């Protein structure tokens, strides 16, 4: 029975580590996405940092990426930046690749 228990604990540890990495990648992606949007809105470095943190926080409103996409499209449109949902989704995908790369290099 101990072999089974050991395997179960190892599986649980792997699962927890994978979930933590997925969370970190998503948070990094959202921060990079916030920085991208802030550059389009021509925010100052201080405003950019604050805005990027706000984008990370927006992801906690509901499951999935729709809350982040809605925030960015709304903020960019309000700032007078010509954009649409497809552009934001493409930027989100690009930042996901960059976030993964950054975290893999950091390990």
From TrEMBL:
It comes from the Bacteria. InterPro entries: ATPase_inh_sub_z, ATPase_inh_sub_z_sf. This is Aldolase.
